[in-house]
Design goal:
The complex is a heterotrimer of chains A (about 625), B (about 190) and C (about 120). By secondary structure, chain A is an all-alpha fold. Helices cover about 65% and strands about 0% of the residues of chain A. Chain A contains 19 helices and two strands. The longest helix of chain C has about 35 residues. Classes of the chains: A mainly alpha (about 625), B mainly alpha (about 190), C mainly alpha (about 120).
Chain lengths: ~625, ~190, ~120
């Protein structure tokens, strides 16, 4: 069979239904990645709007733009949206789903239908959470939702119930997504891709996914306890009956601190993809960078009570957390040195993606320096609940997590769409967002040290905070302009950008070996990997072409991709992958409806819809891929 | 399906790894629940609070022992399925399912009584105790549904999909059995 | 050295250190939490000896893990970074473990010093 015929046959095998129905039943990781991307962009816009409304209220002292109750809801939903509905699904769901199979030389994720389920459950949880605005009862006790404020006697409406049920629901979606990424990385790497040859982006996603698996149960347990106490009168958080309000905080931060590493690790992964490409050399200290990503995630599980240094816990207990908090900065520092050395030793090409990484490194170092200060208990106690903390985490979350995302959007835009973005507009968008971010968040360090408390809807005139707040608000709008410019660049280039070709940037990883956009089957021949930068390994790529001509490793007997051993990526079997399926969206719909009935205490009906969800699994598993 | 002409190594299938990661997250959930129990225990002078009867010893121990023993037929079923011995796999799965179902029904009956006697609306001890037990029973219920599914599915034929599914279910059951043992230890610790 | 012994050393070097620190951290936290709350008042826990033993044991395991990483690294020092598994992978993880175990050792030392030094149960 000629190469052209093989490719046509692969195209036929992997083609999905056209139109809307195709998107609703898709199991293609690339389509699911795109679904995640646009959905999270909508939530990013929502979270950003919430932020701008808050900043408008705070621009001047004693403002009455928003009521305190409205401000509380916006502040809470801003945090909840940005963390649970934007950054996690964007990095793991959009970037992770789209890129990991391509980078490891696979034709899809390990569990394609489960992948679709994770997206539809995520979408359902977002609809559930945001429907709270329709009845004016959005979550209002902060994204951290501390008790006793979150208990029924102080918060009797549905606000906190939306929060708790919504996060259990969202957590299930993220857990499923993380499980899929881990098994994909373990079992679906191309032949020859032993651990030492796996891209650093995949190490970062692996670290983030393992963290999600081990961190989310603490939040789930916390939310279950909260709902049992609110709805059924159980006692977990009230001292009078033997409970403890700090229990909420322990469990929340046991999840919450790993969560911030889950947020930032994929961003590190994007940086470690962009830097070697634009520095035109391999990453310095590759094994140490890979290990640093895993170490940050692991040590990050041991620092949670540094969010509780001001709660009155005994010094003897806090010692453990201060120690771990001081050391957790070391792996990140190793990565910063590796990135800088790589750029320094290479021949850097400062196009837009690398500019965003440059901005990221600056913001990450500043945010990291303020962060390490909090490891010292006395400093933390002096700055707790001030804007100094707000400055720190926005430098990290916006500066260090979102900037690489923006750079990554530009970097992989040609691969996903087949078109180039406008480089000049991209550079302008970088400067606008860089200046906007600095203006918005840097003054917060100062105003925090001047005593401005966080989580306040207004402040008195004459405390010396006015000018800083005004500058921050102006900065917020400059930042918004920068983001809108990025959006404009992307949308315009989608239609009018010049054709990109397969490999516009000479990247080192496997996604640059396939056409842009990638065909449905990703790889015509499954690549055999002989180095950590396979696209720079011309001999191995030529060997792949010869295999394609011979029909070896083409795997066109069905919907196929190979499974390999976990450590050394030796082939173990040929996997038959499932075609598109309606069951994931049906299951997600049943769970979403059930969540609404749980919220309104219609327990029997909720149980009915959950039973329906379980029954869809029967339909799902009755359809066995590869069986007649 | 492509007939593999490649040299292939034997290894755990991806479905088994999926079960391992799923068990990891559920085990962490139980770790959190047990950790909460221990944490609250350290913050209370009397645990359980005075006036609350201690949980029974004998019935839970015997029931848990019976459940733990079902790991044997599940292991046999898993090995037999992997070797293509459908009838052996089916018989072993059915035997395990029967004991698991009896365990679950008995425990759920006792659970209703437990909630009545210990009343989670009265104390943090009862709240965490009832929640821990309830979580365990829920995981056993999921296991029973999985066992039932395979009793039906492998009554007719074995496919690669069903073999991996059964092996993953067996792994899940071993984990649930360990978790149930841990919950029993927590229950028995009230007598220390 | 045989391949299987090298494999064993590599996995020990990678996982023993983090597991030792995690155990020391969780057990040490619960010991201090018990001592500084109601239960401790009843049981009159003297935490310093317990914390010292914990830190020393954990520290010993981490040191053993680092030594295992060193031996593995030395045995595979001529292996190229792009060598296929298992040797390439073993060399890669040996380097990773050389770094990781240093960090865990420092945390365990800090924990030990901090919790053994006379820190009464007082609010921070």
């Amino acid at each position: 069979m000629a190469v052209v015929e093989r490719i046509e046959h692969l195209e036929e095998l992997w083609l999905e239904r056209p139109g809307v129905l195709g998107w609703l039943t898709t199991v293609d990781h690339k389509r699911i990645g795109i679904l995640y991307f646009w959905t999270t962009i909508v939530f990013f816009a929502a979270g950003g709007t919430e932020a701008l409304l808050m900043r408008t209220q705070l621009a001047q002292a004693d403002a009455r733009v928003l009521s305190p109750e409205t401000y509380d809801q916006l502040m809470t939903m801003h945090g909840v949206t940005m963390i649970f509905f934007f950054i996690i699904p964007m990095t793991t769901g959009a970037f992770g789903n789209y890129l990991v199979p391509l980078m490891i030389g696979a034709r899809d994720m390990a569990f394609p239908r489960l992948n679709a389920l994770s997206f539809w459950l995520f979408a359902g949880s977002g609809i559930f959470m945001y429907s709270s605005f329709l009845i004016g009862e959005a979550p209002n006790a902060g994204w951290f939702d501390y008790v006793p404020l979150a208990l029924r006697q102080y918060n009797g409406g549905l606000n906190v119930d939306f929060y708790a049920l919504g996060l259990i629901f969202n957590g299930a979606a993220s857990t499923i997504g993380a499980l899929n990424l881990i098994v994909t990385i373990f079992k679906l790497r191309a032949p020859g891709m032993s651990w030492n040859r796996m891209p650093l982006f995949c190490f970062a996603l692996l670290a983030a996914s393992l963290s999600l698996i081990f961190a989310l149960p603490a939040l789930t347990a916390d939310c279950i306890f909260l709902e049992l106490q609110r709805k059924l009168g159980f006692h977990f958080f009230d001292v009078a009956h033997g409970g403890d309000p700090l229990l909420w905080q322990h469990l929340f931060w046991l999840f919450g601190h790993p969560e911030v590493y889950i947020i930032v690790l994929p961003a590190f992964g994007i940086a470690t993809s962009i830097i070697p490409t634009f520095a035109r050399r391999r990453m310095v200290a590759f094994p140490l960078v890979a290990m640093a990503e895993l170490l940050v995630a692991f040590i990050g599980f041991g620092v949670w009570a540094h969010h509780m240094f001001a709660t009155g816990i005994s010094t003897a207990t806090l010692v453990f957390f201060a120690a771990a908090s001081m050391m957790v900065v070391v792996p990140s520092t190793i990565q910063v040195y590796a990135w800088l050395m790589t750029v320094n030793l290479g021949t850097p090409d400062f196009r837009a993606p690398l500019m965003f990484i440059g901005g990221f490194i600056i913001f990450f170092v500043i945010g990291g320096l303020s962060g390490i200060m909090f490891a010292a208990v006395p400093v933390d106690q002096a700055t707790t609940d001030t804007y100094f903390v707000v400055a720190h985490f926005h430098f990290i979350i916006f500066g260090a997590a979102v900037f690489p995302l923006l750079g990554g959007i530009y970097y992989w835009f040609p691969k996903v769409t087949g078109r180039m973005y406008d480089e000049r507009l991209a550079r302008w968008s970088f400067w606008l967002t860089f200046v906007g971010t600095s203006l918005t968040f840097f003054p917060m360090h100062i105003v925090g040290l001047l005593g401005m408390t966080r989580r306040v809807y207004t402040y008195r005139h004459g405390l010396g905070w006015d000018a800083y707040n005004l500058v921050e608000t102006i900065g917020g709008f400059v930042l918004a302009a920068g983001l809108l410019l990025i959006a404009f660049n992307i949308v315009r280039s989608l239609r009018a950008g010049e054709l990109a070709g397969r490999d516009p940037f000479h990247g080192g990883t496997l996604e640059w070996t396939v056409p842009s956009p990638p065909p449905h089957y990703n790889f015509a021949v499954i690549p055999t990997v002989t180095s950590a930068y396979p696209n720079w390994d011309a001999r191995a790529r030529e060997a792949d072409l010869r295999r394609l001509e011979r029909g070896e490793l083409v795997l066109d007997g069905g919907h196929e991709t190979p499974a390999t051993t976990v450590n050394d990526a030796q082939v173990t079997e040929i996997l038959e992958m499932p075609p598109e399926s309606p069951w994931p969206i049906v299951l997600a719909l049943a769970v979403t409806i059930s969540a609404f009935f749980l919220l309104t205490e219609h327990y029997a009906t909720a149980a009915g819809f959950l039973t329906l969800a379980v029954l869809t699994l029967a339909g799902w598993h009755a359809q066995e891929p590869g069986e007649a | 399906m492509t007939t593999a002409t490649l040299p292939v190594r034997a290894a755990h299938p991806k479905g088994w790894w999926g079960a391992v990661i799923f068990v990891a997250t559920e085990a962490t959930l139980f770790g959190t629940l047990v950790g909460t129990y221990v944490y609250l225990r350290f913050h209370n002078a009397h645990w359980p609070p005075p006036g609350v009867p201690k949980p029974p010893l004998l019935t839970p121990t015997l029931l848990t022992a019976a459940l733990l023993l079902t790991s044997i037929p599940m292991y046999i079923a898993s090995r037999a399925a992997g070797a293509g011995r459908r009838e052996t796999a089916w018989r072993a799965t059915t035997a395990a399912f029967a004991v698991q179902l009896v365990y679950l029904v008995w425990q759920l009956h006792d659970y209703v009584h437990t909630i009545d006697v210990y009343d989670p609306q009265q104390s943090a001890w009862a709240s965490i105790f009832v929640t821990l037990l309830g979580a365990d029973h829920l995981h056993v219920l999921v296991g029973v549904l999985l066992s039932a599914w395979f009793v039906v599915r492998i009554s007719s034929r074995l496919t690669r999909y069903r073999i991996v599914g059964l092996q993953s279910t067996a792994f899940y059951w071993h984990a649930v059995n360990v978790i149930t043992l841990v919950v029993l230890v927590v229950q028995l610790s009230t007598h220390l | 050295m045989t391949r299987s012994r090298l494999e064993l050393l590599q996995w020990f070097s990678l996982f023993a250190g983090p597991l030792a620190w995690a155990t020391e951290h969780v057990v040490g936290y619960f010991i201090s939490d018990a001592a500084c709350n109601v239960a401790g008042a009843r049981w009159r826990l003297d935490t310093a000896p317990w914390q010292a033993v914990l830190a020393v044991l954990a520290g010993a395991v981490v040191v053993a893990a680092w030594l295992a990483a060193f031996v593995t690294f030395r045995e595979t020092r001529t292996v190229d970074k792009d060598e296929p598994g298992p040797l390439g992978r073993i060399h890669f993880f040996a380097q990773a473990a050389l770094l990781g175990n240093v960090l865990f050792f420092v945390i365990v030392v800090l924990d030990g010093v901090g919790s053994v030094h006379d820190l009464p149960c007082r609010q921070s």
